[in-house]
């Protein structure tokens, strides 16, 4: 079948496109550089013509509160409207475990606004709530860095490898819509500050980690339940050490 992957050249998108193509499907890796823009609507009608499934992996170029909300609302409205016209049978979106529990974060509020549009669209859908990716550890460290110290939340999270996310997104794309949310997570919960410290040590980075329960993450304070999944998530199999060994280009 024809599957359109919005954000199909990004970290998760490129892996998902590759996996779906290997299974013999017609897959379009849509991105603004390729002439498909969900903000302006450019190329949407032509790209979605004949598509059975759309996977929305687009992300905002700005994480500023107003800009990120405008991005997800505008992109979501344009994409869903074009899907209705095209007769798309399954809309899939990647969101974040715990987004509904963190309303102080502008980014999380924007993701919830995106989800609300999907639920009200009338298009059969599956929303995948994922935990953070191992590939984001460097960014988490950088966001809290002052001098040679990085201050990181000591709350638990349960990060997952991007390859495992793509594997599950591929499976979801080839399954019926659930008209609800599924959660996905990595193999084990760990304190964010502890894993960032392991990451820095593994990359021979001299920065020291200050574990702080009040440290901000996307503009909000975390507790030990904020970013961990519920009782029955789908679990990726890749552990941090295996991801690190096999992802030399992405770990930086």
What coarse outline follows from CA principal-axis ratios?
globular
Task: Provide the gyration radius in Å.
Answer: 18 Å
SSE order:
EHEHEHEHEHEEEHEEHEEEEH
Mean pLDDT level: 95
Summarize the entry for a quick read.
It contains 8 helices and 14 strands.
Give an overview in words.
This protein is of the alpha/beta class and 252 residues long. The protein is 36% helix and 21% strand. The protein has helices at 11-22, 44-48, 65-86, 106-119, 137-143, 162-173, 192-202, 240-246, and strands spanning 2-6, 26-30, 53-56, 90-96, 125-130, 145-146, 149-152, 156-157, 180-185, 190-191, 208-211, 216-217, 220-221, 234-235. A 7-stranded parallel sheet has the order 2-1-3-4-5-9-14, with helices on both faces. It has a 3-stranded mixed sheet with strand order 6-7-11. Strand 6 and strand 7 (149-152) form a beta hairpin. The longest helix is centred in the N-terminal third of the chain and has 22 residues, at 65-86. The chain is globular, with a radius of gyration of 18 Å.
Helix/strand layout:
Elements lengths: L1 E5 L4 H12 L3 E5 L13 H5 L4 E4 L8 H22 L3 E7 L9 H14 L5 E6 L6 H7 L1 E2 L2 E4 L3 E2 L4 H12 L6 E6 L4 E2 H11 L5 E4 L4 E2 L2 E2 L12 E2 L4 H7 L6
Helix pairs in contact: 1-6, 3-4, 5-7
């Amino acid at each position: 079948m024809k599957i359109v992957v919005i954000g199909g050249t990004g970290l998760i998108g490129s892996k998902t496109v590759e996996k779906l193509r290997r299974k013999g499907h017609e897959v379009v890796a849509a991105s603004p550089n390729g002439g498909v823009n969900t903000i302006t609507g450019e190329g949407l009608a032509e790209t979605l013509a004949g598509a059975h499934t759309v996977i929305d992996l687009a992300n905002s170029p700005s994480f500023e509160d107003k800009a990120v909300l405008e991005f997800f609302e505008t992109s979501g409205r344009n994409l869903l409207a074009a899907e209705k016209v095209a007769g798309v049978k399954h809309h899939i979106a990647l969101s974040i475990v715990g987004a509904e529990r963190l309303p102080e974060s502008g980014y999380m509020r924007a993701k919830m606004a995106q989800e609300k549009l999907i639920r009200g669209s009338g298009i059969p859908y599956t929303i995948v709530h994922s935990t953070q990716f191992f590939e984001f550890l460097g960014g988490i460290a950088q966001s809290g860095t002052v001098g040679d110290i990085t201050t990181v939340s000591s709350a638990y999270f349960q990060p997952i490898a991007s390859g495992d996310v793509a594997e599950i997104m591929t499976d979801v794309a080839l399954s019926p819509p659930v008209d609800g949310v599924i959660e996905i997570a990595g193999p084990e919960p760990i304190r964010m500050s502890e894993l960032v410290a392991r990451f820095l040590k593994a990359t021979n980075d001299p920065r020291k980690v200050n574990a702080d329960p009040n440290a901000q993450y996307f503009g909000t304070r975390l507790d030990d339940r904020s970013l961990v999944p519920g009782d029955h998530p789908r679990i990726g199999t890749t552990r941090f050490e295996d991801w690190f060994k096999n992802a030399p280009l992405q770990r930086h």
